[in-house]
Structure formats: C-alpha cells, structure tokens
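Aim 2, interim progress: modelling of the protoporphyrin IX containing FE-bound target.
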Amino acid sequence: MADVYDPFDAAFQADPYPAYRRLRDDEPVHRHDDPPFWTLSRFADVWAATRDPATFSSAQGLTFHPDEIGALGLAPTLVMLDPPRHTALRRLVGHGFTPRRTAALEGTLREFVRARIADMERTAADGGTPDLHRDFSSPLPAFALAHLLGVPEADRARFGPWVRALTTLQDDGFAPASMAGDAVDAVAEMFAYFGDVIAARRAEPSDDLIGALTAAEVDGGRLTDWDVLGFCFVMVAGGTDTTANLISHGVALLDGDHAQRERLAADPSLIPGALLEFLRLEGSVQALGRTTTRPVTLHGTEIPEGAKVMMLFGSANRDEREFGPSADRLDVTRTIHRHLGFSSGAHFCIGSHLAKLQARVALEELLGAHPRVGVDLDNAERIMSPFTRGWVSLPATGIG
Ligand code: HEM
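Predicted structure of the complex, ligand included:
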C-alpha cells in the first residue's frame, strides 16, 4: 500500500496538504520505511521538538542522509551543531550578522528590484513571457548575499552558478546519485573562493560581513576560518532559494484571491504581516530532520533512540489545532502569534530579517508597479524535493 507520506511522489509534491491532514488526524507520529524515518505533523509536536535539542539533535544532519556532513566532506556547520557549541557559535555569528547590517541594504535591494521589474517589462513589451521566479525572485537573494558578503562585481557572475549547484544538491538531500560531477565541483570552487576572501580579511580588515565575522569576539572567543566558511555555506544553502520561493509563493497565493491582492496593493503596510501568512501556507522549508538521542513516546507510539525524525513544518503550519478552522485559507490580515516557517528554538532562522526585508521590498515594488501581477500555474515547473517547496520556473502574467 502506498505510504500516506511520500515526498518523492509527483502527486504529493503538487499538493501535499491532504496527506498532511491525514497524518495530523490519524497518525501524528508516522513511520516511513524506505528510507527509514519518522514524521511529526502536528504544530504542538513540531514546535516542542525544535525546542528540545537534547532529545532531537541536529548533529547528524537535517535530511534522511545517514552521513550528510561526511558526504560533502565538511565539518559541522552552525545548523548541525547542538548546544552548548551551537550557542557559543551563534552568539559570535550574531555579532557580525546584525539587524542593522541587514537594514542598511534596503536602498540597494530596492534599486536591484526595480531593475528586474524593468527587465520583465521589456520582455513583455517584446512579446515574450517573463518568468517571475527566474527573472525576478531568484536573482534577488543571490544579489543580496553577494553584496552582504562583499563579493566584488567582477565575481558576481560566478556566484550565481555556485548558489544553484549547492541548492540542487541540498534539494536532493545530498543523495549519492547527485554527489558527483559539476555540482560538487562548483561547491568546492565556492569554498576555495570564500577561503581566499577570509584570508584576505584576516590580513586586512574590512566592513563587509566576512570582515565583521573574522573580527567578531565574544568573551575572548573568535570564529575560526572554518566557522566563517561554514556560516557562508549555510547562508548560501539556506538563504537563497528559500527567500526566492517566499516571493514567488506570495504572488501565486495572491493570484488565487484577487480581492486580497487588491487590498495589499492598496495598503502596502499589510505586506509584512502577509509575508508570514505566505510562509505559513506555502513554506519554502517543508520538512527538516533531527535524530533522537533517547527513545521518545508521543501519542502512544515509541520512536527509538537514534531514529531520524522529520519535522513537517508545512503540515504544522496548517494545523487547525493551532490556527483554527480557517487554517487552510489565505488571510493577509491574520494575526499570527507563532509559526514554524523559520523553525523555532535554538536554530530559529538567523536570516529571517534579511528574508523578510527582501520579500517586502520585492512585493512593495512589484504590486506598486503591476497590481494585477499573477502567475501561469499551468506552465510552471516545481522543485521536486522532500525538504523545500517552490519553483524552478513560474511564468508571470499581468506585466506590461
Ligand atoms: C524565506 C526565507 C527563509 C526560510 C524559509 C528559512 C528557513 C530556515 C529554517 C527553517 C531554519 C532552521 C533550521 C533548523 O531548525 O534546523 C533556518 C536556519 C538558518 N537560516 Fe534561514 N531561512 C530563510 C532565509 C534565510 C536567509 C536570507 C539567511 C541568511 C542569509 C538564512 C540563514 C540561516 C542560517 C545561518 C540558519 C542556521 C541557524 C542556526 O542553526 O542557528 N536563512 N532557516
């Protein structure tokens, strides 16, 4: 019999929400056989797991892969550490990656976004179909990160392919079949590049993010070269496609409810709240794993020690037990007290401010210029991944 949770199935990928509902209602702790892992699908259970790293450890990685860290030949990055090592590293990283540094990017990002809108308008004027995801949402986070990290203009063209290679490997959960060839070479090239940047910043301080990270000091502790490199890796792997998909999902969701789209275009002060609603309904990160450090019994089912447990954020964020009977519906004015779009607990997304800034600027400009912007879902292509939800291609409508 088919498994109710089959993230490798195209029908599930197209619409995972009925399966999530069945899991929440009938089997809140579910065992998947091949590959072997367990799922948690209710909001309260996922929330509790993210906040209990002593039981649900990140140290074995976040996918089903039994040796995710070894597969890429990496030392553990921030996202794969447990307290207390994680706590110390996060404090140091937070010293360099501050909300002030993020906020300072707004003007530069807005200029970039306007230029991308002008590109799409030109494509439409020439009789073509602009691709909202490829031409608009995707370039923005790569640009923002390159800018933040201090990648000079001349090297920006190399940065884009590295980002794509890394996100492709990640979407596959670093599966052995994809761990060969060009993508792995591209990631190695990216590491070598940032290794050189770090060495240069150590020799000569600078005020970009890598400069700030190499200089950060808390209680006499400093970040090692690997810590800085690992942080760059997590930012690129976790901060690009996720942000792009938040923007694209937002436009797609609004195209499903034109009254709410009109409301948002007329009152951009609603956009920051709406972004959380987009993330709740169509989260860029649908699932991430932990490994149990002891047997855990939940809803009468025992999960053994050493088991991979997938926290289904995409399901938890639509749980009626948390969000009420309208949990499945878009409401850009919904008051959201807590959600799992950026996870929770020790690993709560450190880039959430940057992601929200980019998505806000993107939607303010896009809805301002084209209040009827929409998407052609019939000709769209989705990412196929158990972990992320989003687009490869999403043709735009209503531009021009
Ligand atoms: C909409 C966009 C984004 C989403 C949905 C998202 C989602 C997440 C999630 C779910 C986690 C938690 C992982 C866990 O619990 O194991 C996380 C952590 C993280 N994110 Fe994001 N993220 C986004 C954007 C960004 C951006 C823009 C950056 C930085 C440039 C970033 C950097 C990070 C880092 C460094 C961590 C690790 C934090 C830690 O382990 O302490 N993310 N993100």
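The mean pLDDT is 92. The first strand starts at residue 29 and ends at 32.
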